[in-house]
Amino acid sequence: MKGSPRLPTAARAILAGDRRTLARVISWVENGSPSAEPVLRALYPRTHGVPVVGLTGPLGVGKSSLISTLVGLLRARGRSVAVVAVDPSSPFSGGSVLGDRIRLERRPDDAGVFFRSMASRGAAGGVATATLEVCRLLDAAGFDVVLVETVGSGQVDVAIREIATTSIVVLVPHLGDEVQTLKAGLFEIADIFCVNKSDLPGADVARRDLADLVAHGPYEGGWTPAIVSTSTTAATGTEELWSAVEAHEAFLDRTGGRRAGERRRLAAEIVGLVRDRVGRELTGRLERDPELRRLLDAVTARTLDPRSAARRLRLASPPGPEGRR
Amino acid sequence: MSGPRRPARRHPIRVLIAKPGLDGHDRGAKVVARALRDAGMEVIYAGLRQTPEEIVRAALEEDVDLIGLSILSGAHMALFPKVLKLLKAQKAGSVPVFAGGIIPDEDAHRLKKAGIRAIFGPGTSLEEIVGTAQKLARRRA
Ligand SMILES: Nc1nc2c(ncn2[C@@H]2O[C@H](COP(=O)(O)OP(=O)(O)OP(=O)(O)O)[C@@H](O)[C@H]2O)c(=O)[nH]1
Ligand SMILES: [Mg+2]
């Protein structure tokens, strides 16, 4: 298969380390462009399943700063690293300001680092699918580690579990109330709790509170979340944080958790893709297909309720094979 | 521009906003960034004190449609042409670059000749900046 002449040009370029093409294909994925599909298909067998480390947490806790320190640590150890930083799109304008790059420090000519900002866009398929596919492109492009930053609120927060092999929830001292309200969600997500800004007062208390909460295991899969204190301004804790990531990744390999997690994520991805496709097809057919239009007419005239219509819709017309448009 | 010949773009315009040079004020750049966001653009905000190398690298990694540079320190005659030169060297000379800041008319004229597509002085309205940015990005799409 290697060097197969049938490989799409863009796929070949990405495998050869062409960063410009990589950046362009990422845009195709973000835009839902059909051009992305053959490239993703060709590159999928070339992915290695590299560690994808998610950093999530409330606004301004230092996620991007931590990413910059982790990039520094990984580069010092000779490992290449790609970063994907996801920020929400404005629900009003659809635009966004993506400011995570500001914190990045690297040698300007260091080809071992790649940084990409993404807006969540809130389009069909959602941020999870697009981000997963982007991570896969970065994996195929040869990066040893992928770091993903998301803001920990709403949908993006939960999505990190569908993307990352190790998830770090970043908190800061005096987030007590926030921890209490987010507790349920956070504990489902976190493989590692990182108390950043530990140069500020209250870090020890925060760490102790977290330890009390974490003690309420057992956890699915048998991993008890690690707790690490960091300060990017005092440059402390970075090594400990990365050690915790490596410990979790090693745990996944030791216990078979990597395969199980990958299967779970792939299942969620496939279900999501099918849901999108069925949704698109039905939405299109609702106005074209005479029978479906009659159903819609009936619901509009209140002789049929939406649930009954939905049930008939599914039974009457299962989604046809793709390509038979 | 937006006549029937050209289909509407299906995705937001991506624009890089960066501040080359050593001055430490980015209030103006941030105001412009927010205005572009409110017009539906995805604004990659690269922040202060960016070298031309960093700016071009960010533009390529982020695959932007447009680059906006802001400067107050007076180093524009050195830094802006450098950005354009590096873009060309990367075969990305077609990415339009606009600029804002305190730039004397004479310099502005020369920078435009060098390939900076639009230059906005301190008094320019946000509407004008947004409108021009949209036009520049659309013309390229
Ligand atoms: N005191 C202190 N401040 C920090 C530390 N780490 C980051 N900060 C500051 O916290 C602010 C936010 O840092 P970022 O790294 O941008 O935080 P973030 O979580 O990525 O922010 P968003 O992406 O906007 O959610 C900046 O002003 C940093 O300088 C730390 O360890 N200690
Ligand atoms: Mg950030």
Describe the model.
The complex is a heterodimer of chains A (325) and B (141). Chain A has 325 residues and is of the alpha/beta class. Chain A has three domains: 1-46, no CATH class; 47-255, P-loop containing nucleotide triphosphate hydrolases (Rossmann fold); 264-320, no CATH class. Chain A is built from twelve helices and eight strands. Chain A has a seven-stranded parallel β-sheet with strand order 4-2-5-1-6-7-8, sandwiched between helices. The longest helix of chain A is centred in the C-terminal third of the chain and has 32 residues, at 257-288. Chain A starts with 8 loop residues before the first helix and ends in a 9-residue tail after the last helix. The mean pLDDT of chain A is 87. By secondary structure, chain B is an alpha/beta fold. Chain B has a single domain, classed as Rossmann fold. Helix content of chain B is 43%, strand content 21%. Chain B is built from five helices and five strands. Chain B has helices at residues 27-38, 52-61, 76-89, 105-114, 126-140, and strands spanning 14-20, 42-50, 66-71, 97-101, 118-120. Chain B has a five-stranded parallel β-sheet with strand order 2-1-3-4-5, sandwiched between helices. In chain B, helix 2 crosses helix 3. Chain B starts with 13 loop residues before the first strand and ends with a helix. Residues 1-8 of chain B have low confidence and may be disordered. Classes of the chains: A alpha/beta (325), B alpha/beta (141). The A-B interface holds A 19-20, 23-24, 26-27, 30-32, 89-90, 92-99, 101-102, 108-109, 114-117, 119, 121 and B 10-12, 14, 33-34, 36-47, 51, 53-54, 57-58, 60-63, 90-92. Strand 3 (96-98) of chain A pairs parallel with strand 2 of chain B. The structure holds guanosine-5'-triphosphate and magnesium ion.
